[in-house]
Every structure is written in C-alpha cells, then in structure tokens.
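Researcher: Batch entry, complex prediction.
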Amino acid sequence: MTKEIGITVKKSLDFSDWYTQCVLKSGIADYSPSKGFIILRPYGYAIWEIIRETLDEELKKTGHKNGFLPVLIPESLLTKEKDHFDGFLPEVFWVTKSGDCDLGEKLAVRPTSETLAYSMFSKWISSYRDLPLKLNFWNSALRAEIKSTKPLIRNSEFLWQEGHTAHADENEANKEVRMILDIYKMLIEEYLAIPTLSGFKTDKERFVGAKYTTCLESAMPDGKALQMATSHHLGQNFSKPFEIKFLDKDTAEQYVWQTSWGISWRVIGAIIMVHGDDKGLILPPKISPTQVIIVPIYKDESKTIVKQKAYELEQKLKDSLIRVQTDDRDEYTSGWKFNDWEMKGVPLRVNIGLRDIQENQVELIRRDTKERFYVKERELVNQTLSILEKIQSNMFDRAKNLLQENTRSATTLEELLSVLDATGGFVACSWCGKRECEDLVKEKTTADIRIVPFNAKNNISSCIGCGNQETIEVYFGRAY
Amino acid sequence: MTKEIGITVKKSLDFSDWYTQCVLKSGIADYSPSKGFIILRPYGYAIWEIIRETLDEELKKTGHKNGFLPVLIPESLLTKEKDHFDGFLPEVFWVTKSGDCDLGEKLAVRPTSETLAYSMFSKWISSYRDLPLKLNFWNSALRAEIKSTKPLIRNSEFLWQEGHTAHADENEANKEVRMILDIYKMLIEEYLAIPTLSGFKTDKERFVGAKYTTCLESAMPDGKALQMATSHHLGQNFSKPFEIKFLDKDTAEQYVWQTSWGISWRVIGAIIMVHGDDKGLILPPKISPTQVIIVPIYKDESKTIVKQKAYELEQKLKDSLIRVQTDDRDEYTSGWKFNDWEMKGVPLRVNIGLRDIQENQVELIRRDTKERFYVKERELVNQTLSILEKIQSNMFDRAKNLLQENTRSATTLEELLSVLDATGGFVACSWCGKRECEDLVKEKTTADIRIVPFNAKNNISSCIGCGNQETIEVYFGRAY
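Model: Structure tokens for the complex:
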C-alpha cells in the first residue's frame, strides 16, 4: 500500500501543494537526488511517449527527419552567436574534466543545439539541392535553474524535441515557423484538450538569437500564464556566423534562412494543472496511456468467473484499439483500486461484479463528470468509444471556459494590477510597442507581455504605459 | 552532387577506411566538432528507430516499462559501489560549474545509470508487492574514449538502452538475465541478420559491480570480435550499499536481487561491417528504413507517364506495408541514383521505364546478389514480399558462413597466436579457469577470452596457459 492515500489538499486551497502531490503520488515523476532534477516514472513516460509519437508522425508527414546530436558542445561553438551565448551563459552546466584530466576546452551540456547543429549544416549544405533541410531531435536540454523549481514546469533538465531547419528564402522560413506552430496547436488543443492563445513574443521576450518568436500560451487555474511551445524565425542570424551558404540555381552564393522550434514535457504539467481535480489527475483520452480501466469486483468464491469476464471484456475493447487494462490484483481491495485509478486520472472505469454478469451489464464511471451508469455488455465497445470522445470534447470545452474566464482587459496600469491581483490570467491591454512601457508594467505589476496575438487589433485604447494613441492589443500575464 | 562519388576503397584491401567511408558517405553518421563524438544523421537514426521500436515492443511484452533519468549523477552516488566506480572513473566526464559558479559537488555525465536508478529503487520498493520492478531507459551514455575512436563502435557518447530490474529472489533474476539475452539474440539474428555466440564473460571481463555477465559476440570480416550486447546479474552487490530492501509475505526484511542490461547503436556498425560490400552498405530488409527504392527512368517526353506509373507501384507496395520510396528527383541522373541507393544499401530496387510500362513489367535488382530480373506488374507485390524474405535469409546465411569460417580452434599458445595472426576470428581453446592463464594469453597474443559458451565442453584438452587437465572450452579473440 502507498504510505499516504490520495491527494490530501484541495486544488482550490493550495494549488501548488496540490500540483506537487498529483505529480508525485500518481507516479508521474519523482525528485532526483540532485537538486532541480526530476525523474520521469513509467506513468509519466508513457504519456510522453504518446505525445512524442503523435507529434513525430506529424513532423514526418511534413518532411522532417530525426537525428542525434551529442549532449556536449564546445564553448567555442556556443559563443559564435553573441546574443545567443549571452542569453544562455548563466544557466549552462560546464564539463571541465574527463577522469582526472582537465579538458583543453570547456564543454557545455546542451542548453539547446542551435550552435552544434548549425556547425554541421555548414558542412552538409552547399547547393540549392540540399535545401530545405528539415531536422528534428528528440533529446533533453539542461539549464541550471537558479529560481525555484517545479516538477515538469521548471527543472534543470527536461525532455523535449528541438527542430532545426534551413531554407533557400526568407518566406519559406516564415511558412515553416507558422506551420510548426499550427502543428503544436493541433497537438495541444486536440490531444491535450488545452486551448491556447497564439501570436508573437515581443523583442524583449523573443528567443535569444532569433529574428522573431511565435508561441502558444495557456492560462493555468491559479491565474498564471504558461508558455506551451515556441517556434522561432532565426533569419540569417546564425547562418552568417556559421557560414551556412549555398549555390542557388544561378550559381550565386547565398546564406540560408533558418527556423528552430520546440515543445517540452512541460505540457504534461499543464495537463495536470488544467484538468485535475481534488481526487487527482484527469487525463484526456487521446493521450491517456490507459483509456479504460476494468476493475473486477469479487469475493473468493466468485473470483474466477468475474476475472474471466473482465479479461473477455478487455479483449473486446483491445480489438477496437482501445488502450485498456484489467486491475486483477488480489492484494488490493476494490475500493483502493477505485481511488488509485481516479488519482491516476484514467478517463473511464468499468466495474464488473457477479450480479452484473448475471444481468449482462457493466457499470461505467466517467472520471471527468463522475457520472455512473449501466450499459448492456453487447453495447460496451460502442458506448466506450462514444463516451471517450465525449470526455475528450467535454474536457476541452471546460478548459476553454476556464481560458475565457481568465481572459480580461484593462486600460490603465491600476486596473491591470488589480485584475492581476484579483484573478490573474491574461489581461488584454493596448501597448505602443516601446520597451520602456513594457519594462514599466513589469516593474509595477511583475507581469510580462505574454503574447502579441496574430492580427492584433490596433488603436483600441491608449498605451497602458505612456498613453500614446498608436497601439496594438497585447496580453499581459504573470508567468511560471 | 556529392563531392566524392561512391566508396573509393575495396573492403578487402583497407577494411578500416572502407568502413569509415561507408558510415560517412551513406549518410549514416558524421563527426562532431568535439573529438570522439559523432552525430547520427537521418539515415542512421532511421535504422536506430526501427531497432528501438522492435526491441521496445519485446521489452513491453515482457513487462518492462520505460522511464527517464537525468544525465547528471552526483559523485557521492557513483562512489557507493566501489568496483563500479573504480571501473568507470577514468572515463567519466565531470560537470564542475554552472554558469560562473563552482558546484558544491561534482556531477558525472551518465556513464551508465545503475547508481542513480538504484538510489530511486530504495525509495520505490518497500514491499513484495512492489516487485519485480522492471524498468528500461532509452538514452545515451558518455565515456571519454582515450583509445582510438571508430564511428558507432567506439565513441565518447553513444545511444543505447539500459534496463534495470529488481527481484524478490535470486533465481528470478537469473531468469531475467537469460530472457533478455534471448531477446537480444532474436533481434540481432532475426532482424540484423548477424549470427552470435552466446555465453558468460570471465570474472576479469565481467561488468564492474556485477556478479556475472552474459553476452553476445560476433566476428567482423577483419577478424576482430565485437561485443554486441550484455546482460548482467548484479546479485545483491548494489542492493546492499543502496539499501534496496523489501518486506516479504512473512514480513521479513530482504535485499532485492538485481539485473542490468544494454545494447547500443554499435550494432549498426556491425551491420555495415558484416554485410557491406565494395559498393557500400547492404541492409537487411527487416531493419532497412527503405526496403524498396523505385527509380523511374525517363526522358523529358516520357517523364509524366513514367513517374505516374512509379507512384502507382509505390502505392501498391505501401498498401502491403512495404517501406517503399520513389526517387523522382529531376536534378539527378538515373545512373547517379542507382549508385547512391546501392551505397545506401537498399535491399531491392525497382527500375521502371517507358518500355517496361508497355510490356506491363518492371525490372527488379537485388542488392545482396546483384541479380536482375523482370516481373510482371501484377506480380510485383507478391514477388517483392517473397524476395525481401529471401534477401533477409540469404544475408543471415552468408553471415553465418563467415562466422563459421572465422571460428577455429587451437591447443597451444603458439597455435593460437598463429591462427589469430593469420585470420583472426574466434579461437576455441581449453582453459583451467585461472586468471593467470587468461593474463598470460593476453600478454602473448593480445587476445581476450571473449566468451565462455553456455554449456561449454569440459576437458577437451589441457589448459592453453598452464597445461592443467581440468578445463572448459572458451573462445579467444582480439576485440574492437
């Protein structure tokens, strides 16, 4: 038995403690002995595998290929693009020794792979025939977290994918940046059931070394904003220092245009935060490693027959490609199992006992609405398929309401501050585009511009900072 | 166009140069700017993905679950099992700084994860209900190569999987060790088409910290032995220092019994070495990312119709789950394409031209035997399926002959040395079991005992070292 049973704090009372308990007790992750690092346990990794497979398929369909880059990057490469290096410097882990020997040159433990990848691009690209080059890497990145850490949201090492592409012209790179953002949005909204705002980062917030950054942002139930994924246009900022050049069809030499983009296991943290309740996780069916858990309810004398029926139902559901499991462990009570699978967030539970068998029925329990109802055994597969779909869309709808409730607007600094303090979330404001006004708001409210929406509205009101009349609408928020 | 066309050296004349050209020119891998590190390019990574998926499925079927462990391991953990630490110490990369700050404790960049995993096992295991615990990790390991490096065979970082299990009793751990070795053998023989010898390592050669090590060994065409995979019984060597204890059904406290095991991308190197020829790679169909390459042969006026037919054939083959691709690039000649796909080792090529269309036929070219023949279009799918099977088994048979030819025997040190110098490969000798004799042979011949076969024969002749009459048969070889 686990030492502490279930989540012991309400989501609404202590969100932070509730979240940590959800992560640890459901078997998603655990703390590593090194401060700031976590371990992904099988339940968490299984979710990551589904996310990875889903995204990987989309990336392959759109012509991207996977590769592997070493985790250690020579200092001399990392320093080649100055803004990039300055941005990452404070959080880089450095290898300085191998065995007992000091290394001639320090090696950075991958904070991100632009520099290493592009040192290779300059070798691989020489002709227009080599373009576009569209590579992706499933790996982990390391950034020493000096601020407070939070499992899956902010750690010194995280699983992610990083995409790196090179194109013959600027506009093709523009299209790539947006296509990738669309794929991320599809993944996050349709699979993770989390609605997002999409748009640009401001110059202050863009990726170090990028020409511009696009991103997806979501609101968490505690009112904080969470960056879900980013897709960057790098312009020729890297191709020039790394000399990534190609001969075009007219044999003129040109620098390539580049993009990079990534999404991390942080989205698993978002799933927990957005969908979970006081009993624990609620997983969207499309990414739940177990979509249906069958719990046979038996006494000693009915054990064989009830388990037999459970396996039979499991097989039927499996045949319809439903991810299903039977919890047939004798060493745990049915009540313990109910609580455990609820905490783990399995979307649908099937209870089956001797009485049910006699009546050719099973009991279904929805995790999202807690509804319980009986269905005839012969209708189990169809009902399950249809309920799983309903759960998926209900979860998205609930989350969408949450985002709408958490999106407000303000026209003055005072109003912005009071909205942020009262409820958090995103606050739409007008902004003149100047860094000073962005900094002023940050200083007064600790909020950043999370996103400049694509097709942002112009001149709705005057700038929240300086009162200037020429403005665009942006969303402020306090971030994780 | 690539700068140098094709492999420029014969396999039989300069095996080492031939191998490196195969790796680099086929697009499998490239050198990283850091000495000793390589990059896996899309073609190499695609092979790794197929190997990974195949093995992952087997591991999941047998109850193993995947997880993620951080790449940095505190020094204090790594030192807990002394033999283990001493064994890895010379090749460990150490992180000593983050940003500009010195770390309080050095962090090792994962040479292997026993210590980190088992520090967690002690937290996760408390009852017999928590056993067996069978985890697997797909990641990379880093070991500073001080000797010469060879792409995929010996590098400072390599992709692999590492399995770690804990069991309630010793015999269950014994069974796990052998079951995993059987899975590896199935993968290597049935998928990679490489025959292996299986058995134990001697005490001298076993994994540092293990009670015993089992392994698979293969012979490469240059006469060197290559260790393909290992599976270790760790006894209670780690569970004691890491205090991994559980209460059994009688509530008595016991230490767990453990295993660990791994296979790396080195097997891709073995595929290249064993199967390749002067034209480049020959990939076994079961792990070839592209099993069939269709090359439409056209002039300007026949382009549309020939390409159209090629796409139609591609679709038919795809519908039968064959991994097929059409090389429809106008910027390369057919001859260039033939050479390129030959170098990449695609097992079967389909040529299709205007004349073939008129005669309802296509030309098939086998990569392994270079045979060419025409088949009727309507028979294409069936013929392809059957030829791919034939190629797979022909490749295994050829490799099996190679292994048999490369397995000899010797009864004296002089004979052993002359066999090793003349042909290399495995040499069966009788050995008394003493370390001194093993060391003596190493000193005189530079060969190690690669493997003590399961059910090794006893007392065939006297010990190759000391002449003692009580012996077992072992295989000596010079290793990579």
